[in-house]
Amino acid sequence: MCARILCLLAAVVLLTNRSQAADTPPNIVIIFADDLGYGDLGCYGHPTIKTPNLDRMASEGIRFTQFYVAASVCTPSRAGLMTGRYPIRSGMCSDKRRVLFPNSGGGIPASEVTLAEALKAQGYATACFGKWHLGHLPQFLPTSNGFDTYFGIPYSNDMDRVPSAPKGRNSFWDPKVEYWNVPLMKDKKVVEQPANQTTITKRYGQHAVDFIKQNQEQPFFIYLPHNLPHVPLFRSKEFQGHSKRGLYGDVVEEIDDTVGEIMNTLRDLDLDENTFVFFTSDNGPWLPFKTHGGSAGLLREGKGSTWEGGMREPGIGWWPGKIPAGQVSTELASTLDLYSTCLLLGGAELPKDRVVDGLDLRPALFGTGPSPRESLIYYRGEQVYAARMGPWKAHFITQGAYGPPAREVHEVPELYHLLHDPSEKYNIADEHPEVIEEIRKLVAEHQKTVKPVVNQLEIPLDK
Ligand code: MG
């Protein structure tokens, strides 16, 4: 009798748990590499970098071939992901300073509704492990912007270089931890300086695994922005000489390994069918760093430019049972859309008192319909350099990423058909003046919605 009652009770508990699971919004994990190029993963065609875990994630989920970030450098790109808005709207881009520096006094404005704030309001446990780069002063840090906890280097791993380090790029070719006095923070406290960058990738991954284990009972959101493979390149002992691609390959393969650890943890805990994982990078490869920078594959140029190599990135989504396995999507999508999509998955509404540029990607992810995205604006700093409309891309201004060719304003923009010519080699502006007119209208409409705001990147530290 007693046993029967216990059995019944157990069944009730099981059923209750199940119904909670059905009602519970999904866990969300966003893994964000730094300066990883479109061509740097096995599943995106790299011939010697091995990324079995990301390749598996793609084969079990969706791999986008036209996935974009909001800017071609770190700070504005991250602002786009965290707010769902082109960074011009939050003041997180500048023509004078391309990113935030340790001597910057600005950061992500409190008025923005960050992805973490929106999900936290829905009952999510929230964590950021990695490179923040949206302001290193206390009021701008992750724990002031919706994250319950933070562990990471608050800006780029090549900042805070010590005066005794080799000058210029010489310090990068054989990098030593002590050349960069970057802080490692836990919440708002510096816990290590200089951060031991050789173990940083592994430690970020371990923090994510631990957080998943500790937060199985409620939905969680983990934002995991790796500091690497941004130069200077570091990897743990275990990954030294791991890759045929050399040091850069070692670093990417270690990141891939942490992805595997996270996926295995989700599977082991039976959380895989209720967790949406997305992997991408903040901007294209930093090409002046030669073999220490990555590859944009067949795309033109890299980090810092508004050519495709600067802003088109690997984009891999995974959610077993929800995202059909093995999709290769040519739909247009952006990190701006990740914001909106994650809010909707989490049961939140999109902010109505401001322009949100992100769109709902769920149909494209779940294989039930097309992506709603039909256009993209390419900013460099505060200026529109290019715009995409369907397959077409017009460049109104062109400029080398970090040096020549000089900035050039085109009276007749250069026009490329990105489906036929993904490398942007053949300017066909003369043949399609009507397309250029349409793109001009699109840009004018967008610009009407942009209001002047305080430029956060130009605020000095002492202000
Ligand atoms: Mg970057």
What amount of the residues lies in strands?
15-25%
Structural class: alpha/beta
Order of SSEs: HEHEHHEEHEEHEHEHEEHHEEEEH
The radius of gyration is 22 Å
Oligomer: single chain
Biggest sheet layout: 10 strands, mixed
Give the strand order, joined by hyphens, for the main sheet: 6-5-4-3-7-1-8-9-2-10
Cofactors and ligands present? Answer: magnesium ion
Q: What are the key terms here?
A:
463 residues; alpha/beta; 4-stranded antiparallel sheet; 11 helices; 27% helix; binds magnesium ion
3D structure, described in words:
- The strands form 2 sheets. Strands 6-5-4-3-7-1-8-9-2-10 form a 10-stranded mixed β-sheet, sandwiched between helices.
- Helix 3 runs parallel beside helix 9 (335-345) and helix 6 packs parallel to helix 7 (247-268).
- It is globular and about 70 Å long.
- The protein has helices at 2-23, 52-60, 74-83, 115-121, 170-173, 200-214, 247-268, 308-311, 335-345, 362-366, 433-448; strands at 27-33, 62-68, 125-129, 149-152, 184-186, 189-192, 220-225, 275-281, 312-318, 327-334, 375-380, 383-389, 392-398, 408-417.
- It starts with a helix and ends in a 15-residue tail after the last helix.
- It has 463 residues and is an alpha/beta fold.
- Bound molecules: magnesium ion.
- Magnesium ion is lined by residues 34-35, 74, 230, 282-283.
Write a brief caption for the model.
This protein is of the alpha/beta class and 463 residues long. It has helices spanning 2-23, 52-60, 74-83, 115-121, 170-173, 200-214, 247-268, 308-311, 335-345, 362-366, 433-448, and strands spanning 27-33, 62-68, 125-129, 149-152, 184-186, 189-192, 220-225, 275-281, 312-318, 327-334, 375-380, 383-389, 392-398, 408-417. The strands form two sheets. Strands 6-5-4-3-7-1-8-9-2-10 form a ten-stranded mixed β-sheet, sandwiched between helices. A four-stranded antiparallel β-sheet has the order 11-12-13-14, with helices on one face.
